């Protein structure tokens, strides 16, 4: 059987890392697309030349022509600009909305059957716009944010508790911004919920609150350190986890920015919720119960996402 085809729209920091990971994991042949001439070609060739040492045969192609993504099984979108120190994700809205229009039209014309994972910020609004511009079914267009935010939470918790990251599960829901909702009650060490661990004296509520805030600020912490761009290793790994779940029909339960229409009392909005990803794309939105405080935080996050979607409609009247 032919290898699956993975199209990466945007060959910058995340795009290049995605290509390298997809090759090493032998997820499929990779097409790297970018408007910058030479960048996707150079990265594709560089990664292909790591094949003999790494031992993969996946084909790497760099291109500036959308026709080369034809028939892609998965498209991962990072095209656009990342933030610089002092910028919020929302400051990227105007410029990245125009990019989503071009990318959405390219996918619609050349890869309408793909499972599309959007990473471009501000994430929840951009994945919504990308879906609108591409016209693909909602279950085939999803945003990557919750897997990364949860991974950051899991990393900080594993350091705090001195346990393997593999034994820490965590859920971060809501929009991918300052209002994201790390859910302590649904986060565990080997099944023991975080509030129980506080009661057991493994940590204090103050320390847990500080970790939750550090998770919310996780992206900004890295932007502040790098100064020239934003995080790319962990974002790429998170998106590859989602792509693999689709390509291998793994039925993974992962928090993603998915189209929610009915669950969580929402009527048609892209926002971070628990989902099941398998061969059908987003096969299910898992409608977990939130307590009063969690609901207040989730509602605030939903309002922030709605504000960004309205701003998109104000900028591009074809979206209204
Ligand atoms: P960067 O290294 O600048 O790569 C972006 C690439 O997009 C560049 O190579 C550009 O040439 C290319 N590009 C610009 N316009 C177009 C276009 N119209 N068509 C095709 N390619 C184009 O950025 P990056 O890879 O570090 O980040 C990419 C995006 O991901 C940014 O918007 C970040 O804010 C976002 N991001 C999201 C997360 C989430 O968790 C959601 C995390 C980290 C970064």
Question: How would you describe the overall organization of this protein?
Answer:
This protein is an alpha/beta fold. The protein folds into two domains: 5-144, NAD(P)-binding Rossmann-like Domain (Rossmann fold), CATH 3.40.50.720; 146-312, Lactate dehydrogenase/glycoside hydrolase, family 4, C-terminal (L-2-Hydroxyisocaproate Dehydrogenase, Chain A, domain 2). 43% of the residues lie in helices and 22% in strands. It is built from eleven helices and twelve strands. It has helices at residues 13-24, 39-48, 51-54, 93-110, 123-134, 146-161, 194-199, 205-216, 218-226, 233-247, 292-315; strands spanning 5-9, 29-33, 60-63, 74-77, 115-118, 141-143, 168-173, 181-189, 192-193, 252-261, 267-278, 281-285. The strands form three sheets. A six-stranded parallel β-sheet has the order 3-2-1-4-5-6. A three-stranded antiparallel β-sheet has the order 7-8-9. A hairpin with a 7-residue loop joins strand 7 (168-173) and strand 8 (181-189). The longest helix has 24 residues, at 292-315. The protein is globular, with a radius of gyration of 19 Å. Residues 9-15, 34-36, 39, 78-83, 92, 96, 99, 102-103, 119-121, 123, 144-145, 148, 176, 229-232, 235 line the site of 3-acetylpyridine adenine dinucleotide (A3D). Residues 9-15, 34-36, 39, 78-83, 92, 96, 99, 102-103, 119-121, 123, 144-145, 148, 176, 229-232, 235 line the site of 3-acetylpyridine adenine dinucleotide.
